[in-house]
Write a structure and sequence with these properties.
The chain is built from 8 helices and no strands. With 236 residues, it is an all-alpha fold. The chain has 2 domains: 98 residues, HscB, C-terminal domain (Monooxygenase); 103 residues, DnaJ domain (Helix Hairpins), CATH 1.10.287. The chain starts with a helix and ends with a helix. Bound molecules: zinc ion. The site of zinc ion has 8 residues, from loops. This is Iron-sulfur cluster co-chaperone protein HscB. It comes from Sciurus vulgaris. Belongs to the HscB family.
Length: 236
């Protein structure tokens, strides 16, 4: 009997807006490791392949090459394709790539290279954001394994979990003090931590259905976290 009410409420809460950066995914194929080695330079026609700057530049004329659409975010960010990511290493790689492709460094170059640097920058930013946050990283990894979470799957969630979320949301709506909001925030953070540990284990065991189930819950908690953020902004 709760099902109907819960579903309606979730529609109202707009779960769709759950913050997941970097939704645009690069296609992933078996060629991802090979990259653009078979392509020729757009500028001088020279052979592609690993050149200076991690294959971003032509070995002969050093012109910036277009992004490789077959390269996935893990490969681009030099991370193992796994849920466990070394965030310090990820950050270093992000800075390294930014120093290579940032549009500021191409202001004196051809329009083609300017355009490529814009595209590279966008992809590098997306890749970094996607792999940094556990939820988006998990969803991306799941997608690489061919599993996607469709929007609006509330009906598949167990009602006990939906009730738990509903109660947290009600508490948040009623919270009158900063301390009350803080308390809810730490509850949700603890839940997210627990989910992150569990999803990590599920990926280690190649249990993608389990990972999917936990990530779906994380989307709900993430939605609550967004609301907490809004509530914290002073309304005057
Ligand atoms: Zn060239």
């Amino acid at each position: 009997m709760w099902g109907g009410r819960v579903q309606v409420l979730f529609r109202l809460w707009g779960l769709r807006s759950a913050g997941v950066p970097g939704r645009r995914l690069l296609s992933c194929s078996a060629a991802s490791e090979k990259g653009s080695s078979s392509l020729r330079c757009w500028n001088c026609g020279g052979p592609g392949g690993p050149g200076p700057g991690d294959g971003f530049f032509c070995q002969q004329c050093r012109a910036l090459q277009p992004p490789d659409p077959t390269r996935d975010y893990f490969s681009l960010m030099d991370c193992n394709r796994s849920f466990r990511v070394d965030t310090t290493k990820l950050q270093n790689r992000f800075q390294q790539l930014q120093r290579l492709v940032h549009p500021d460094f191409f202001s004196q170059r051809s329009q083609t290279e300017k355009d490529f640097s814009e595209k590279h920058s966008t992809i590098v930013n997306d890749a970094y954001k996607t792999l940094l946050a556990p939820l988006s990283r998990g969803l991306y990894l799941l997608k690489l394994h061919g599993v996607e979470i469709p929007e609006g799957t509330d009906s598949e969630m167990d009602s006990q979990f939906l009730m738990e979320i509903m109660e947290i949301n009600e508490k948040l709506a009623e919270a009158q003090s900063e301390a009350a909001v803080k308390e809810i925030e730490s509850t949700v953070q603890a839940k997210q931590k627990e989910c992150t540990d569990n999803v990590s284990r599920a990926f280690e065991q190649d249990d993608f259905e389990k990972a999917k189930e936990i990530l779906t819950k994380m989307k709900y908690f993430s939605n609550v976290e967004e609301k907490i953020k809004l509530k914290k902004i002073p309304s005057n």
